[in-house]
Every structure is written in C-alpha cells, then in structure tokens.
Amino acid sequence: MFVNNDVMNATTKEERHVIQLNDPEHPVILSTEGLHVYYGKKEALFEGDLQFASNQITALIGPSGSGKSTYLRSLNRMNDRIATVTGKIMYRGVDINQPDIDVYEMRRRVGMVFQRPNPFAKSIYDNIAFALRLRGVTDRHQLDEIVETSLKQAALWDQVKDDLNKSALALSGGQAQRLCIARAIAIKPDILLLDEPASALDPVSTGQLEDTLLSLKAHYTIIIVTHNMQQAARISEYTAFFNQGRVLEYDTTSHIFTNPSVQVTSDYVSGNFG
Amino acid sequence: MNSKTQNKVAIGGLYGIAGFVVLILLALLGFILVSGVPQLSWHFLTAPGKAFLKGGGVGVQLFNSFYLLILAMLISFPIALGAAIYLYEYAKDNWLTTTIRTAIEILSSLPSVVVGLFGFLFFVVKLHLGFSILSGAFALTFFNLPLLARSIEDSLRTVSDVQREGGLALGLSRWETVSRVILPAAVPSILTGVILSAGRVFGEAAALIYTAGQSAPALNFADWNPFNISSPLNPMRPAETLAVHIWKINSEGIMPDAKAISSGSSAVLVIAILLFNFAARYLGKRLYKRLTSA
C-alpha cells in the first residue's frame, strides 16, 4: 500500500474527521454508535459511528477489505448468522441491533439491493408480488398497482410492461438489477441499502441506475457502497471513507472529494491507492 | 517428450478410457436387449407367472416393482427433503452436523443385502409385518434415504446464496425464503435426483429378497380394496419384484422357459431404468428452461 508513515507525518491533516449532521430538512433517520463487527475472533470493523440523513444519498467508499460492505450489511442485520455485531444501530430512536427486535419486520423497513443482481426464478410480476402476498396483500388490483408503481420508480416499467409473466431470469444484468430495486421498494421501506449495485453492470446500465437512484431519494433514504468514486461524487450528498475497518472521514461529498481533511482520504480519492 | 506430445498422449489415453467405459455399457446393454427383447410381448408383460409350465409372464412382478417404488418414494422423499433442508439451510457447522453427514454417508455405503437382512429382522420378524410390500418399502427407504438426501442437498447447493440473501432482505423468514424462493428454484434439479434414485430403487433386489419376499401370488386386478389379500393395492401381501424375480428364476427356476423369462425380465428392467434416466434428463432440462426463460 502506498500510505506509509513518512507520508502521514509529512502532513498536518487530521487523522480522523467525522461530522455530526444538523440539517432540519433532512433529519437523521439512522445512526450507529460504537459498532464493531467480528468474524469469529477477527475484528472486521473497529469503529463505525455514522449518521444518515433522511431522503439523501450517502456513499460509503474505501479500498477492498476496508469494512464498508461489512458495515452496510450490519445495518439491516444481514450479518446476523455470519458475524457478531456489537454496538447500537438507532433507527428512528429504536436500537435495532437488539435480540428482541423482529428482524424480519425491520428488514421490511430497511431494504437491501446486492452486488450481483439476484432476481428469483419467478416471473417478473411474481418477483415483486410474492413478498407482498406473503404479507397478506392478495387483492389482484392492488398488487397490479404496486407492481406497476415499483417498476416505474425503478425505471423498468416501459421495458417489461408487456412481459410481466415472463421469467425474470431472462432479463439483462441492468434490467435485473432494476427489478431487484423495484422488488425492494415494493414493500415500502424507509431506507434502501445498496451494496455496489452497479459493479456488475455496463456503463450505460450504470448511468440509468444512477438516474434511478437520484429520482428515488425523494421517497427513500439511500445508503450505497461503491468502488466507483465518480459514482459517489455524482449521486451522493454525504460520503464516508472507510479504511482498514475504520471510518476515517465522514462529511459532505463535495468536502471529501475537493478538500478532504484526512490525508489518507486525500490519497484514496486522488487515486494514489485502493 | 515435449509438452505437445505429452498432451496428445494424455488426451489419447483419456479418450481410450472413456471409450472403454462406453464400450462396456454398450456391450452389456446390447447383450441384454438382444437376448431379451425377442421375449417381450403384451402377454409376457401382463400375464401372471407359472411355476412349472412354460408361457408365464411377469405382469405381477412388474406391477409389484412399480407399487413398491411408489410406496418407497412416498416414505423416503419427505424424510430426505426434510433432512436435506435441515442440513443445508439450517444446520450450523458443528460436530452434530458432521455426525449426521457421516451417518448418512455410511448408510449410503451399506451393502444392500445387509439392509435387507436388517429389514428382515426388524420389520418382518420384530414388527410382525411379514414378507410384505410394506416391509420392502421400509427396507428400500433405508436404502434410498441417504442417496436421496444427498442428491437433494446438492440440488439446494446449486441455488446461489445471493438468492437466500435476496429473500431475507425482503423481510422473509428463513423458512419463507427456503420454501418460496430456494425450493422452487431447486425443483428441476431435485426432480432429476428423484427420478435417478427411482431407477436405482426399481432395480434393487438384495434388499427386497428378505423383506418383500420371493413369491408373487396372482392378483385380482379388478379388486382395488387394499384390505383384500388378492388386491394389488394390499400393502401386506408378499410381493416379488422384477429384479428379485430375475435372481429367483436364475437360482431356482424350474419352469422350462426360465432362461427366456429371465432374459425378457432383464430387458424390461433395463428398459425401465433407461427410461427413468432419459426422463430425468428431459424433464429436468425442460423444467429448468421453463423456469429460467419463458
């Protein structure tokens, strides 16, 4: 790795810089306090204290193995069976990292879209409708409406509206990923977590996906892990920089990319390592 | 020898071995079919057997084979499915899981004649089930369960973990994810495994000799009351299957056309198993295609 002590000592920058949010228009909806994640005995995330503003896009960036995906997956407890997560995850004033939380109900509020598009081996319609049916929405008319709205919000409706009964596995990568977004927002979450959602997509699909995310933030709080720094710069209001299991810097995206307070962040966003 | 020649020799050797295996199969199939197919007729396939005279058929044995197969599958499939789901979807990686897996592996490598003798002592004698279809079906379950559980577990493994995460991320419980997302996606592969194991069960003889018995009393195919002794559906009657029949007439058959009946039965058995195999491939592929692209 490029960063060494000489470089660190040569600067007068801070070692760590994390802002507290204070925007009355976009109150904090989710925050973590003293979050630590262990895989077995190995600690993968040492510290992750972040606040997320509602109806904004927050990007989590950092080199591979920096803990950003681990952090994201902890937010809706997808790490439950894989890792030990300690600390608080406050969602609208409730600590959702407690054993007695109904984790299934919680995940309906905090949805997730993954790196590899994972449509189910069902029709496009059923990919969206079946989770709703399981929750008791059986009225065909209502289901039709939700399917249509979700697909429209995910900017996929025009391409698939005549093929709703076809298998979702026949969709292209970009379409499949937008179907996964439609599926996630159909159950009306508050927060949408995205784990490198564009890394398996071509540039055109990536652009469409970014447009989709920008239009979605009116309704959802979006937290996105990305390897693509231009992507973070294009779509997010806030950016957190992870390195070696720590949040080294958290600030507005423009601050991170134009005048970062921490030297390592500066090295990373200018492409010196990572 | 340079690496190019080495490569050629290696490929040649592998082709030779593969060809040898295919040759053995073709020779076996050819011999069985050539000597057996001329014996086949509607009469042969449907008539009951004759103990001392020529001209008997294998109708009863054929029916018994299918009936036993269905019963054995009805018993073993739900258990195997449950075991596979538990092992792959729920079980933590600890000593208990390892023990269960090892047990399944040992059970699957037990010689079928040992399974048959156990079935005789336990089901036939101890539980007083007698030489019956039910005893045979239980013995076949023991024989089939580990193979089926393994194959279903492999089917579940073919469904990517991102599908499981997808289900959980929608707020589905683990059971909802398994039953609504994973199982439907695994159905083509599970079906293939079931049909292939059906082929093995269909041809099994040793496990049945001491459990389902070696006699095939004539059946009254007009009587479908399972409580009547001559009804084909009665699970408590002794039921010699086709595979057992082949063994029986070759070791102690006293009818004059024993050899012809044995050849004919072998052909029927082999054709049925081939059909199972082709059906497994065909249905599995078709189902997969239907699920993945409409």
TrEMBL record, chain A:
InterPro entries: AAA+_ATPase, ABC_transporter-like_ATP-bd, ABC_transporter-like_CS, P-loop_NTPase, PstB-like. One of its GO terms (cellular component) is membrane. The gene is pstB. Residues 30-269 form the ABC transporter domain. Keywords: ATP-binding, Cell membrane, Membrane, Nucleotide-binding, Phosphate transport, Translocase, Transport. This is Phosphate ABC transporter ATP-binding protein. GO terms for biological process: phosphate ion transmembrane transport. GO terms for molecular function: ATP binding; ATP hydrolysis activity; phosphate transmembrane transporter activity. NCBIfam families: 3a0107s01c2. PROSITE patterns: ABC_TRANSPORTER_1 (PS00211), ABC_TRANSPORTER_2 (PS50893). It holds the Pfam family ABC_tran.
UniProtKB/TrEMBL annotation, chain B:
CDD domains: TM_PBP2. The chain crosses the membrane at residues 12-34, 66-88, 100-123, 129-149, 181-202, 260-280. Its main location: membrane. Pfam families: BPD_transp_1. Residues 62-280 form the ABC transmembrane type-1 domain. It is a multi-pass membrane protein. This is Phosphate transport system permease protein PstA. It comes from the Bacteria. It is found in: Cell membrane. Keywords: Cell membrane, Membrane, Transmembrane, Transmembrane helix, Transport. GO terms for molecular function: phosphate transmembrane transporter activity. Belongs to the binding-protein-dependent transport system permease family. CysTW subfamily.
